[in-house]
C-alpha cells in the first residue's frame, strides 16, 4: 500500500538518523479507533505521522550507550521494552496499536524498528522505548534466535512475549522463549508479560484461554488475551503493567532499607562511671611512668 510505504519510509528514515518517534498522548484516552474506511489512506497516514514528534535521540539497542542508559529525554527515566514472538502473531500490530491507538491491518515484514513514547506511571512521566523484533522461526530442535534478537533482549528492561490464539505453535514457543529471555539476563528476573493476540478470531482458535493463563502464571508473568484489531485498552494495560513493574524494579525501595537499618541495635552509650574509672587508671599509669624517669 503506497500510504503504508510512506509511513514506513518516514520511520525508516528517522531510524537511520538515530531518531525515535514519540507520541505525546500520555495517559489512556478514548482513541479514534481504526482508520475510517471513508478517509483517504494517504490522508490517514499523514495525520498519523503529524501526530508523532521526535523527542530525543536514543542510542540504538545493543550499543554500549544504550546498555548504560536509564534516562530518557529531559532526564526522564527510561523503560526499554522488547516485543518478541513467532512470526505473524501480530507483534508489529501490537506495537503500532499501543503507539497510535490504531489498527492498520497490513504491515511490512518486520524490520526491527524502535519506537518511543511517554507514559504516566503513578504520577511520573516515563520515556519508554519499544523494540519490535523479527519473528522467531520454530524449528524441530527448538528456538532459533538470531544474534540481532538476542541483542534486543539483552538491551531490554522488560519483554512482551506475544503468541496468537490461532497458532498453537506460537503458544508452544512461549515457555522456551521465556526461559531464553531469563538466561540472557543472568542474576536478575526480567519482567515479562505474555500477550495472546487475535482474540477476535474465535472460529479458528487453537489455544484455549485457560492454557495461556496457566502458562503465564507458571512462569510468574501477567497474562492478557487481546485483539489488537478490535481493542486498544487491553493492549495499553499490558504495557502499563510492565512499565510499572520495571519502574518499581528501577527504584529499589528506600523504605525497607531504612527499616532494616533501624532494626540494627545501636551500641549502648558508654557508662560514665566506667569511663571515669578508666580515665583515672590511665592518668595514674602516666604519673607512674613520669616519676620513674
Ligand atoms: N484478525 C486479526 N488479525 C491481526 C491481529 N493482529 C494482527 N493481525 C494480522 O496478523 C498479520 C500479522 O501481523 P504483524 O503485526 O505483521 O505480525 P508480526 O508478528 O509483526 O509478524 P512478523 O513481522 O512476520 O514477525 C497481519 O495481517 C495483521 O493484520 C488481530 O488482533 N486480529
From TrEMBL:
Keyword Metal-binding among UniProt keywords: no
InterPro entries attached to this UniProt entry: P-loop_NTPase, Ras-related_GTPase, Small_GTP-bd, Small_GTPase
Broad enzyme group: hydrolase
Keyword GTP-binding carried by entry: yes
Similarity annotation: Belongs to the small GTPase superfamily. Ras family.
Organism for this UniProt entry: Sousa chinensis (Indo-pacific humpbacked dolphin)
Region of interest (Disordered), residue spans: 249-274
Gene3D superfamilies membership: P-loop containing nucleotide triphosphate hydrolases
Annotated EC: 3.6.5.2
Key words, A-Z: GTP-binding, Hydrolase, Nucleotide-binding
GO molecular function, one term: G protein activity
UniProt-listed CDD domains: RERG_RasL11_like
PANTHER family attached to this UniProt entry: RAS-LIKE FAMILY MEMBER 11
Pfam family, one: Ras
Superkingdom classification of source: Eukaryota
Catalytic activity: GTP + H2O = GDP + phosphate + H(+)
PROSITE patterns reported for this sequence: RAB, RAS
UniProt cross-references to SUPFAM superfamilies, sorted A to Z: P-loop containing nucleoside triphosphate hydrolases
Protein name: small monomeric GTPase
Amino acid at each position: 500500500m503506497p500510504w503504508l510505504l510512506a509511513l514506513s519510509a518516514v520511520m525508516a528514515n528517522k531510524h537511520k538518523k538515530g531518531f525515535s518517534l514519540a507520541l505525546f498522548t500520555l495517559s489512556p484516552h478514548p482513541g479514534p479507533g481504526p482508520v475510517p474506511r471513508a478517509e483517504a489512506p494517504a490522508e490517514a497516514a499523514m495525520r498519523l505521522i503529524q501526530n508523532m514528534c521526535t523527542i530525543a535521540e536514543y542510542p540504538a539497542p545493543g550499543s554500549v550507550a544504550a546498555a548504560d542508559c536509564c534516562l530518557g529525554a529531559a532526564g526522564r527515566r527510561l523503560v526499554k521494552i522488547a516485543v518478541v514472538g513467532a512470526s505473524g502473531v501480530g507483534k508489529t500490530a501490537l506495537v503500532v496499536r499501543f503507539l497510535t491507538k490504531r489498527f492498520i491491518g497490513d504491515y511490512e515484514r518486520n524490520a526491527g524498528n524502535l519506537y518511543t513514547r511517554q507514559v504516566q506511571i503513578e504520577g511520573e512521566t516515563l520515556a519508554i522505548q519499544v523494540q519490535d523484533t523479527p519473528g522467531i522461526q520454530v524449528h524441530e530442535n527448538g528456538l532459533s534466535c538470531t544474534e540481532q534478537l538476542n541483542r534486543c533482549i539483552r538491551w531490554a528492561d522488560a519483554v512482551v512475549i506475544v503468541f496468537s490464539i490461532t497458532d498453537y505453535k506460537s503458544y508452544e514457543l512461549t515457555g522456551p522463549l521465556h526461559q531464553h529471555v531469563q538466561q540472557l539476563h543472568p542474576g536478575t528476573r526480567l519482567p515479562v508479560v505474555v500477550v495472546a493476540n487475535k482474540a477476535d478470531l474465535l472460529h479458528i482458535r487453537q489455544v484455549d484461554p485457560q492454557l495461556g493463563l496457566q502458562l503465564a502464571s507458571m512462569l510468574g508473568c501477567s497474562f492478557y488475551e487481546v485483539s489488537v484489531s478490535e481493542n486498544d485498552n487491553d493492549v495499553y494495560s499490558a504495557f502499563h503493567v510492565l512499565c510499572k513493574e520495571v519502574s518499581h524494579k528501577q527504584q529499589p525501595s528506600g523504605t525497607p532499607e531504612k527499616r532494616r537499618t533501624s532494626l540494627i541495635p545501636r551500641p549502648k552509650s558508654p557508662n560514665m562511671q566506667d569511663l571515669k574509672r578508666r580515665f583515672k587508671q590511665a592518668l595514674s599509669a602516666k604519673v607512674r611512668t613520669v616519676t620513674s624517669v
